[in-house]
Amino acid sequence: MTFRRLTLRLPAALPVLASAFALTLGAALAGCASPASRFYTLSPSGDGARTPAAAAATAGPTNPAWLIELAPVDVPPQVAKAQLVVQSDATQVKVLEQERWASMPGDEIRRALSGDLTQQLNTIDVYGSPHPDNVPVYRVSVNVQRFESWPGSHALIDAVWSVRALDTQTVMTCRSVLNEPVGDGYDALVVGHRRAVADLSQAISSGVRALAAAPQPGMPASTSSTSMKGGAKAAVRMKAPASIACPQIAPAAASAG
């Protein structure tokens, strides 16, 4: 029996067609790729442009007269996400997938406030860190009630904040509503929020100074009882924390972003 070898000859144009198909497929896949995301922060750093002397001047004091303890900042659940959330009208919002915060909004606000407060008060934020017992500490709490972004219109922060002296438990509780006009674009919107945070830090700084300068008021005492050995009751005098009125802050001049 005789076998013949068969040779399969491909058309000469087939490699060219395969290359063209690969290029077309690559272009199609590139067209389907998601647009690049942009990331925004409320704490722009200019350290790279500062001289060593300027950087050292803002690094914080070595022996401050008092310390602050800025707690994590609460924000409304609808904006507590990585994406920018903007208002389209009074009852509707848009979640922008390609416009994102560098960290969660509460963290962005806290970091910006901490930087502002430590510079304005010439102090150190010791939240989560050990600190000397002989230095007064003021605990700052911020609860953002509204964090609204209106593109091309304004950026709004409505926050309830408090300052408490840890040694005397004297407390100040205030509310600040900051409304900053902004121009077009998401960059301008973020800049508007940064200005609002800066205004908020000025109000809190004034509160800390007022609390530090105020004479310690006499605090009314309340009486409670506690058990002693043998079932006897002993009266215990407990002092209620005093409160101080919020400082009057002159509104900053608004400027369009």
UniProtKB/TrEMBL annotation:
Give UniProt keywords alphabetically: Signal
- Report the protein name in the record: ABC-type transport auxiliary lipoprotein component domain-containing protein
Q: What's the source species for this entry?
A: Paraburkholderia bannensis
Renumbered to this chain, the signal peptide range is 1-30
InterPro entries per UniProt: ABC_trans_aux
The highest taxon in the source lineage is: Bacteria
Please report the stretch or stretches of sequence annotated as the ABC-type transport auxiliary lipoprotein component domain. 52-204
